[in-house]
Design goal:
Length: 343
């Protein structure tokens, strides 16, 4: 295998920064490790699942690890493992154990639907993961069974409980707000933070994936969600940390947790976007809402050197668009399903 020298702490390369053409520092890589999932959220996957990519076209762990190593060598400092559902892929914790040991990486995080969290939380914590995001769109058993097509709300709740017991902090609960589905639960979600040290973050429902049931009417703006909560109790702005990403964070006075809003559509945060995405089948994406992809897997399988991999990563970052055009109506959707991009 061709190896790129790993930048050493203290060397001039250690704090190397990857910049795109709009002077944004790109230091965050989101890796989708599988397109498979144990849920079937209606806005993300059809009932039968998406046609499987097939074993040969999914990146092998050693391939992902190589990309991660080269990317960290270039200046990536944070990696998020996502999917499909990352915890369904066999060997995921061993893979994460290797990623977290990459010199120069500051943080490894995970986005999960929580179904396998009770089983895996301790192992994840022990290998060094400290922050996780759990997606949960409803607190009602029947509605959960409806939106995910699986009756597993209690399993997810037990997973969150276990993650909290083993020490994950903060645990972020990501709620996609959908009019007519969970708009009547906005307050219930926000009020969880009064007693529990959770970060509940409302995400605007986005037009992603062909055939999904998105419509502008179903999307609720962050501002509208916030005003629903404010009618109950004022939300105070709180300090914003790097780890909050694009979320605007608030809290009720005296609350244990926080409430956040991610306004991908109504108030895009493209000007501070620091992300690069790698899909499960090895395509690099420099914008969630663009269908433009770079085939990194083909390069890896053509006996490319690490320098060539680094060059492709750099080129992809340089061509990151200034912003997405989704709110202009010029692009209706991103055609790939969210499950294969990883969110
Ligand atoms: N299976 C994991 C999970 O659900 O957390 C990780 C992958 S999932 C694709 C990542 C995130 O994307 C989830 O929080 C999910 O709710 C979100 N998501 C999927 N489709 C979306 C859409 N159309 N608009 C907004 N968020 C979406
Ligand atoms: Fe699976 Fe996550 Fe998509 Fe739901 S949102 S179907 S849990 S990948």
């Amino acid at each position: 295998m061709h190896r790129q020298p790993i930048p050493k702490r203290g060397s001039v390369f250690f704090e190397m920064k990857l910049k795109d053409n709009f002077h944004r520092i790109i230091d965050y890589l989101r890796i989708s490790v599988t397109d498979r999932c144990n849920l079937r959220c209606r806005y993300c996957m059809p009932e039968a699942g998406i046609p499987s990519m097939g074993h040969g076209s999914i990146m092998r762990y050693e391939e992902i690890l190589r990309v991660a190593r080269v990317a960290v060598g270039l200046g990536i400092r944070k990696i998020r493992v996502t999917g499909g559902e990352p915890l369904v892929r066999r060997g995921i914790t061993e893979f994460m154990r290797q990623v977290i040991q990459l010199p120069g990486l500051r943080e490894l995080t995970l986005t999960t639907n929580g179904v396998l969290l009770e089983e895996k939380a301790q192992e994840l914590y022990d290998l060094g993961v400290r922050r996780i995001n759990v997606s949960l769109d409803t607190l009602t058993r029947e509605k959960f069974a409806h939106i995910t097509r699986r009756d597993l709300l209690m399993t997810v709740m037990n997973g969150i409980q276990k993650a909290s017991e083993v020490g994950f902090y903060p645990i972020k609960i990501n709620v996609v707000a959908i009019r007519g589905f969970n708009d009547d639960e906005i307050l219930d979600f926000a009020r969880i933070t009064e007693k529990h040290p959770l970060h509940v973050r409302f995400i605007e429902y986005m037009p992603i994936g062909d055939g999904m049931a998105w419509s502008a009417d179903c999307s609720i703006s962050a501002e509208e969600i916030r005003s629903v909560i404010q009618r109950y109790r004022p939300l105070e702005p709180v300090a914003h940390y790097n780890s909050d990403g694009p979320a605007q964070m608030f809290a009720f006075v005296g609350a244990a947790g926080r409430v956040g809003f991610i306004s991908s559509l109504s108030n895009s945060f493209c000007n501070s976007c620091n992300r690069l995405r790698l899909t499960a089948d090895g395509k690099l994406r420099n914008c969630l809402f663009s269908d433009e992809e770079t085939d990194l897997l083909a390069l890896l399988r053509s006996s490319a050197t690490d320098e060539q991999v680094a060059e492709m990563l750099t080129r992809c970052i340089r061509s990151k668009p200034a912003n997405h055009l989704i709110h202009t109506g010029r692009i209706r959707t991103c055609h790939r399903s969210m499950s294969s991009i990883g969110g």
